[in-house]
Amino acid sequence: EDQVTQSPEALRLQEGESSSLNCSYTVSGLRGLFWYRQDPGKGPEFLFTLYSAGEEKEKERLKATLTKKESFLHITAPKPEDSATYLCAGTQGAQKLVFGQGTRLTINP
Amino acid sequence: SQTIHQWPATLVQPVGSPLSLECTVEGTSNPNLYWYRQAAGRGLQLLFYSVGIGQISSEVPQNLSASRPQDRQFILSSKKLLLSDSGFYLCAWSVSGGEKLFFGSGTQLSVL
Asked: Over its length of 112 residues, how does chain B's per-residue pLDDT go in tens digits?
């Protein structure tokens, strides 16, 4: 069964304290790995798509990387406004994403 | 530019009552449309998706149904709500053949 697992479930950091979120997947024939940001009470907002092992993408303080078994979302010198739940999802194609449970990130000032 | 509208934002319904949630997309043609549910502390669960008018695929057997009466309109319905139907419902769209999803703002449904 296709599965996406994120860790940790929750992470609390001080402002400026860099860290990484993990997303491991067992999606056979993975065609894409997606990262989304979700603020409380709102829909997820697209961040990145990664297609092949070794690929990296950056946006402001966020960098996403992909290996054959997992993806990491690195957060460098985070600010309080980076606080959100970060979701990853994998797809084999067929227009369906399999989502992980998310990591709830809190950045304290 | 493309936009997605989903309403209502919040809904409180008694057990056994009907449900109708509506979602519309603007600025694109022939999108793929999706309904997801997000229970507290859990990941997004795909409920239905549609690749065209009248074409609905159901992912999870349940008390809900979906319809696509127009190209850019997607409706989630129930004849009789259950307590277990409570959750955060999200509509999303993608370009035809694509997997990158764009989500609406969601509906928080509480069944009491």
From this structure: 889 999 999 999 999 999 999 999 999 999 999 999 998 777 899 999 999 999 999 887 678 999 999 999 999 999 999 999 999 999 999 987 777 899 999 999 999 9
Cβ-proximal residues to A80 (8 Å cutoff; 6+ apart), any chain: A15, A107, A108, A109
B35, B45, B99, B109: which to substitute to probe chain A, counting the most A Cβ within 10 Å?
A: B99
A55 touches A71 (CB < 8 A): no
Q: Does A31 sit within 8 Å of B99, measured CB to CB?
A: yes
Distance from the Cα of B13 to chain A's closest Cα (Å) equals 18
- When CB atoms are compared, the residue of B49, B104, B108 closest to A95 is B49
Answer for the pair A72, A65: CB distance below 8 angstroms, yes or no.
Answer: yes
